[in-house]
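Sample intake — phosphomannomutase
Collected from: Zhongshania antarctica
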Amino acid sequence: MSKKASTTIPEKQKKASRFSILQRDIVISAVLSICGIVAAFYWIQNIEEPRALTQRMNTVTANSADHQRVIIREAIAQLSARLKQQADNPELSKILRTSDLAARSVFEQSLERAFPEAIDAKVIIIGPQGIADERSETARLRNNIEIDMLRKSLGEGGIVIEAYSHKNAWFISFVTKVDKHGALVITFSAQYFEQMLKSLAGNAVTNELIQTYKTRRDTVIRPANTDYAEAMQSRVLSVPGWTLQVYPQPQTVQNLRSDGTLLWLVCMFCVATIAASHAIFFVRGFGIARPASAPPKKAVLDKAETDILDLEQALAKKLAANRSRTPSHRDNFPAPDSSPPLPELQQGARTRRGPLAINCFRAYDIRGVADTELNNETCEAIGRAVASEALSRGQSKLLLGRDGRLSSPRIHEALVKGVLGSGVDVIDLGLLATPMLHYACQYFNIGNAIMITGSHNPGHYNGMKISLEFQSLSGQDIQNLRKRIEDQDFEQGQGSLTNDSIEQRYIDRICGDVVIAQTLKVVIDAGNGATAHVAPALFEELGCEVIPLFCETDGNFPNHAPDPTIFENLAALRTAVADNHADIGIAFDGDGDRVAVVTARGKCPKADQLMMVLAQDMVVRNPGAEILFDIKCSRLLPELIIEHGGRPTMWKCGHSYMKRKMAETGALLGGEFSGHIFFKERWYGFDDGMYTAARLLEILTLSGRTMDDALSNQGALLSSPEIIIPVDEDRKFAIVETFAENQDFAEATLSEIDGLRVDFRHGWGLIRASNTGPAITLRFEADSEAALSRIQNDFKDLLARIDPKLADSL
């Protein structure tokens, strides 16, 4: 017995010694592995990633600098060409030869109209002895620098361009000789070019304009910041001595940074895995090598196994008890098909005030026949419901506007009665366009508004677009208003009514933001809608020569329906553009939140083609920007966005849905095929036809292109118009759902965010239920006539199986 013990104890000691060495090796291995992983991740995070970030910063800044250099060169060339055109005017030569001061004054006034962006325009008469002659009028020049520029222009010919400081402000003058008798001097504030550069740069970069003369170096335009001077890109401009220096903005650098969170999570996971795995081996070694006095391993394991078994048995009993109770719980819920059919729901949708037109409460607004569905009682009830909902959210003030429809004053009166009767104060802004009301929300910092408008619908329709807390109501929010009316869930009180105007503030805000680099002749077709008075004034203040068309508000819409997306409604605008040799024609819908364009050659691009022009400019200036578009848009649009470094996102149709999605994603630009276009960059994210048109003209004039030029650079696919098939209101969604459930399109990508869009290799088709009327809508696009016909026939065959009458309309 003692001999056995004496031989066993040394063996255990040797075994323990071996496992001690093993445990030491395990610890060393763990430490070395963890240190290696941490070192690798540290190198990636602090060495490799900064190097890659610098490379990305340099690339983005260089691209932006190249783009801006081209645009500035074109802008300067255009200003120079306009100045040369004025200098070649025979009338000016006559004025200079005769030294007719009265005629000169008249000509200078015409120069100011030709250069509305300039701070002054002068005609300088040169005497026989040149500028030193007493008739040289050098006193009319601003300082010695302008006098020197005049000397250079007389001696060298051509156009002399220089920047200079005068009374603590920077100016830029263009001087050119006219024959031998005089010169033209056009002077701009440097702020004009600064605003131009800011418009080009967007949020991506900031600019510095430097003028070098001999050894002197002056900063004409200062950058917003130079935090990332190491990534600065310098470009020599076409004006001698001018250099553009471009610095990335902090926001751009932040967007270009890789998110290190995932990287360090992976690092921590690897460290934890290594530590855990080594710990297991370490513990096993400790268990094998533990002293004899330790409790037997089997006993410990037996106890653990017993505990686990007891826990499993307890859980099994609990699950069995739950299963035995499930039928009684399930019986408390109705079967999926037990909800009442739509006709019964309509019969029950009545209030103590009388029947309520359920179909008026649509997906993103309230809209219906004005004299029947939107009678006085209904409109007063809607006012009470909106006001009560506002009060429940802690809001006590509401802005109110209306379009020019004949029924709008009556609806306005009923709404005011309902809102005031619930205790909410009303600021009445009168007749205005819908985007002006949205701007008023921002200006007054009141996020609650009702716009009385039928939008693009015929004159006997009307409706309301409602916002609460700066959010356009849609979907369930609008149905909740209907339920309030049915339940008579209204607050009581007495609000106050005041009147105000936003028109000039709106015009001033856009004119302070948009730069139009040359005078354009523009035909404005207001379609007798709500933009009739404001749009011509806006574009005149932006420096355009405006030819108004149907710019008298008339709720009968006597000239054409207030929907500019229909080709036939643009016939008069196309004629006016051609007859007046205009640069572009712009049309707005009844309430001004949609826009359409006619080019100088008479083309009528669709809204997704306009979006391609706007999106290209946006993503070039804001690399990585997200651009939102609806499901009806061409597949060329997302391809262009990706090609120029942006991120395309397709979303459902509807201005309310689009505005919410823009706020959610931070997208800088959004657009719908119906003509609603939303700017978040430099604007507020709502759809605004007038602001969109102004930004479009800015892009065209800064790049020196016409709208026809911009369209010629786009690809071309064959597409159908939007096909509208009338169906009963209570059937339209069921038809689209049935279509989606029974489709068997092979090798296609399906999107069901709004109806069903089927993308094939050579084209796509879309079917969806209209949110604005009793109809389903379809649209098709393809690479060829054969592909377009094949996709349409596939849709038609499936529709025929659902309802043959629907297929006959396709």
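Post-analysis note: Residues 513-712 form a domain with the Alpha-D-Glucose-1,6-Bisphosphate; Chain A, domain 3 fold (CATH 3.40.120.10).
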